[in-house]
Design a protein that fits this description.
6-stranded mixed sheet; 5-stranded antiparallel sheet; globular
Length: 417
């Protein structure tokens, strides 16, 4: 969705009724994944990954303090993951996307993006760093709150996390707004919001069965997205856009629908939640709409991801190529975080080589060929229109001599006296 116009529906009528929810602030999109294995089925690695209960000892017996190791402190094995992230601003230093969140460890990982909504959050505040919009400040306040709290909540993947995240984000946005000087916007619209921002978050945790299975928790508000790429299949959108007009992904590229639910400091909001099971190897991608909203089709977004993967030698080069291509097409700030699990860069290239070729031949080449034909015809039509204009002028100039011979063209509208 574009940032040039307000993008929040103030009536809230676009938000569908909640059929199943754990609280008024959390919407369950899909049923949760099956429960974790019973305690006797867990391996030693699984037991040590989480908090360790205090042993029962006699008060007269001194015991050694128990050291609990955070799962985030155990690094992911070399050669089993890929990671990259970037944040592209249309105006340097004024970009309303916050920096993405990207964390990875042996048994857990996290990607998240935050897109400050410039239309609804256009009110400008004076800060020590200079004037900043509410959209800029809201995205960063939400991002910092999530980054501080989510590592303590994970790697547990359950329904309670989303409710806690909602309360943490809501408190952070309200606190940040209270710190800012009161402002009166020149805009007068019910669509204005205080510090509005989207969020799309994907958190993964190893299931513990040793077969490369991962649990994935998705939490989002607004139209930023989390995608999945698996070998042998195309890109899959895992989150559902919070927009008033519920078209599919192709229709959403052709119409700029209002956002029906987003995080802000002065309006109640929902966090959507979904859980899915993933099997490594896979790529998890969180992206704001500046990365995908200006492409001709969802197929072109997948092609953008895979073609740059194939043409790069490492994650740093992959990131650089993604940024270069997105910069040439986007009309918005753009941020992305990519986390690959179960393979390294070269292995992912091999795993997606056939898909990249098939995508190009089956979808991208036919679509691009049609677009080329349309562009050629439009240019030909424009050329014909210019030629017609010139030809009409020439023919009229030759014809009007006889046509106007009895008219007083110097004093139009006056008859003979």
């Amino acid at each position: 969705m574009s940032e040039g116009a307000p993008t929040v529906d103030p009536s809230g009528s676009a938000v569908e009724p909640l059929s199943v929810a754990t609280s008024p602030t959390v919407r369950l999109v899909d049923p949760p994944i099956p429960e974790q294995p019973a305690a006797e089925e867990l391996s030693a690695a699984d037991v040590t990954a989480g908090p360790t209960p205090a042993p029962i000892t006699s008060p007269d017996v001194e015991s050694e303090p128990i050291v609990v190791i955070s799962p985030w402190s155990i690094p992911a094995p070399p050669g089993e993951h890929v990671e990259l992230s970037f944040n592209l601003a249309k105006i340097n230093g004024q970009g309303e996307d916050a920096d993405p969140i990207l964390h990875v460890a042996r048994d857990t990982g996290l990607v998240a993006v935050f897109d400050g909504m410039g239309g609804a959050g256009g009110t400008e505040y004076q800060t020590p760093e200079g004037p900043r919009t509410g959209a800029y400040l809201g995205a960063r306040a939400a991002r910092d709150a999530v980054d501080r709290s989510v590592l303590q909540l994970l790697p547990a993947v359950n329904d309670t996390i989303t409710g806690q995240l909602h309360d943490t984000i809501e408190a952070a946005l309200r606190t940040r707004l209270a710190e800012l000087p009161a402002q009166r916007s020149m805009l007068r619209s019910r669509l204005l919001r205080a510090l509005p921002t989207t969020m799309a978050l994907g958190a993964i945790g190893r299931s513990g069965d040793g077969d490369g299975h991962w649990n994935c928790l998705l939490v989002w508000a607004g139209d930023s997205r989390v995608y999945l790429l698996q070998p042998g299949a195309g890109v899959s959108q895992l989150t559902t856009d919070d927009i008033r007009d519920h078209g599919d992904a192709m229709e959403n590229l052709r119409q700029d629908s209002l956002i029906s639910n987003a995080m802000s400091a002065d309006t109640a909001f929902l966090l959507n939640q979904r859980q899915v099971e993933l099997t490594a190897p896979f790529l998890l991608i969180a992206a704001t709409d500046g990365c995908f909203g200006y492409l001709p089709s969802p197929m072109h977004f997948e092609s953008l991801l895979l073609s740059t993967l194939q043409n790069s030698s490492d994650p740093a080069m992959w990131s650089a190529q993604l940024q270069a291509q997105i910069t040439t097409i986007t009309g918005d700030d753009a941020s992305m975080a990519v986390l690959g699990i179960g393979a390294d860069h070269g292995q992912f290239q091999s795993l997606f080589a056939d898909r990249t070729a098939a995508l190009e031949s089956r979808w991208i080449t036919p679509l691009d060929s049609l677009d080329t034909q349309v562009n050629d015809l439009e240019q030909e039509l424009e050329t014909l229109r210019r030629h017609r204009t010139n030809q009409v002028a020439e023919l009229w100039a030759a014809y009007r001599l006889d046509y106007e011979q009895y008219l007083d063209t110097q004093t139009p509208g006056k008859g003979d006296s």
